[in-house]
Amino acid sequence: MTSMDYDLTILGGGSGGLTAARVAASLGARVLLIDKERLGGDCLYTGCVPSKSLIHVARQVYQARTATRLGLTSDNVEIDMARVAESIQGVIKQVQDAEQVYTDDVTVKFGTVSFQSPTALLINDEQITSRATIIATGSHPARLPIEGLAEIGYLTNEDVFQLTNLPASLLIVGGGPVGVELGQALARLGVQITLIQGPERILPREEPEVSVAIAEALQLENVQVVTNARVLRAERHGGKKSVMVKQGEQMVVFEADEILLAAGRQPNVGGLNLDTIGVTYNEQGIKVNDYLRTSVANIFALGDVIGGYLFTHVAAYQAGVAVRNALLPVGKKKVDYRVVPWCTFTDPEAAHIGLTYTEARQRHRQVRVVTFPWADIDRAQTEHATTGFIKLILAGKKEEIVGAHMVGAHAGELLGEIALAMQNHLTVSTMFATIHPYPTYHTGLQQALFEAYLTSSQLRSNRSIVSAALRLRK
Ligand SMILES: Cc1cc2nc3c(=O)[nH]c(=O)nc-3n(C[C@H](O)[C@H](O)[C@H](O)COP(=O)(O)OP(=O)(O)OC[C@H]3O[C@@H](n4cnc5c(N)ncnc54)[C@H](O)[C@@H]3O)c2cc1C
Ligand SMILES: NC(=O)c1ccc[n+]([C@@H]2O[C@H](COP(=O)([O-])OP(=O)(O)OC[C@H]3O[C@@H](n4cnc5c(N)ncnc54)[C@H](O)[C@@H]3O)[C@@H](O)[C@H]2O)c1
């Protein structure tokens, strides 16, 4: 084989691509990272970072407005959206500077890139060759076949964080994580929100009771949640925008000042010339096998562009797997999605890891569910944040956690502990016997685990050992 310019070329410098570049460079490979415009991706500029910053601002407003229940009197909170938008851009800049280190040992190029063959790429007018390539070009907001929508215009996650004036009312199309997180945050900032969701419940990937709890939390803050409702058409009437919605057999019209489209994602595959070189893809994304290999042997893909789990931490995990498989001749690694956590950052948060109850029943013979109310966590009481629950799904003779679903303040923070336990097959008794600091929300998890132990077969066998020992003493 003739010598190649690079060992590995990575297309897309977002969450997955940046991690892949860093891992590959740390292994001593000659790495080229190409992005069409800038490094950081959706997560940094238009996703996780600005959305969590906006959610933080909205929480401050909400807490100030509800502080009277704590005996505090706060003056009317005034919101200067131009300064809020500026502060969000400031956070992005801080995170961006911290990420710079990812590319210190990597060649970075910006521009238009396309495949000429599985080993040759054209970047602007320059041809480069690479032994292997990883495609990590991410996704964009799904463009739906909603008649009239493109003509009247709408917002997406790509522009909502830059608004310096908020609309008085907003129709959000889509009740997934983007719709519910932004719906609650913008409602707290004074926008009248109508959330329109196609399926029969919001957050349909969650357990049903999680969807119910989050819908109730939104409704308590005056978000109108409309489910089983598919948006078919959009129109403008003077200064207002309206959508025609099919709800059951009925057509219903909703009207507001603006529309936010939050109805899923589509993969960024355009312009790469994938058809010519034989990389297969469909509307969900580029097809990969368990090794993240595409239909072309030396081309891998990861992150949003392959669909499935659209999360920054999953893209980063896949980066480690794809780099290893692209660079190492032996010891190929399969992806393992047994322990995937995610959190929807509403207030209370909806935290999820592993299997749902239905999935657990399909995969395990012995399945047991233990629930624990968030209100029984002392820290939750001290912070007046008592809404929610912990639902643990246990399976197998040894009673390992195979799934956990939580609604509660800071619930997402508990996922790390459960992830580590699940990854290492720790049992419930090992987990609850570990000392947790009081009073943290983690003690709530420890209490839930203790509840699980109290109703376990292990307790029954421990009881018989103790009663035998006591009999012997008599
Ligand atoms: C509003 C919102 C909030 C979110 N919040 C969270 C959250 O809290 N937690 C979480 O885990 N996930 C969250 N996500 C999802 C997360 O942003 C994505 O899963 C993650 O960014 C995917 O990483 P990626 O590397 O696949 O793509 P990206 O990070 O988007 O990176 C893709 C990169 O490819 C580049 N690119 C695109 N096309 C080309 C091309 N043709 N040539 C070269 N480069 C190209 C882009 O410029 C970009 O830099 C959120 C998403 C949204 C929309
Ligand atoms: N906290 C987080 O980790 C976080 C936050 C935001 C986004 N994300 C990621 O971003 C991805 C995209 O999120 P999303 O909320 O845009 O997509 P989504 O696919 O999760 O939810 C969109 C919802 O819109 C509905 N929908 C589609 N067309 C519709 C129509 N015409 N009328 C009414 N409803 C319609 C869909 O049925 C779906 O339930 C998610 O998969 C998630 O992984 C993660």
UniProtKB/TrEMBL annotation:
Residues at which FAD binds: K52, T137, G138, S139, D304
GO molecular function, one term: flavin adenine dinucleotide binding
Disulphides: C43-C48
Keywords: Disulfide bond, FAD, Flavoprotein, NAD, NADP, Nucleotide-binding, Oxidoreductase, Redox-active center
Manner of cofactor binding, per the entry note: Binds 1 FAD per subunit.
Protein name per Swiss-Prot or TrEMBL: FAD-dependent pyridine nucleotide-disulfide oxidoreductase
Species classification: Bacteria, Bacillati, Chloroflexota, Ktedonobacteria, Ktedonobacterales
Keyword Nucleotide-binding annotated: yes
Domain FAD/NAD(P)-binding: 6-319
Transmembrane portions of the chain: none
Binding site for NAD(+): G174, G175, G176, P177, V178, G179, V180, E181, G264
Isomerase in keyword set: no
Pfam families tied to this protein: Pyr_redox_2, Pyr_redox_dim
Highest taxon in the source lineage: Bacteria
Cofactor(s) this protein requires: FAD
Domain Pyridine nucleotide-disulphide oxidoreductase dimerisation: residue ranges: 340-448
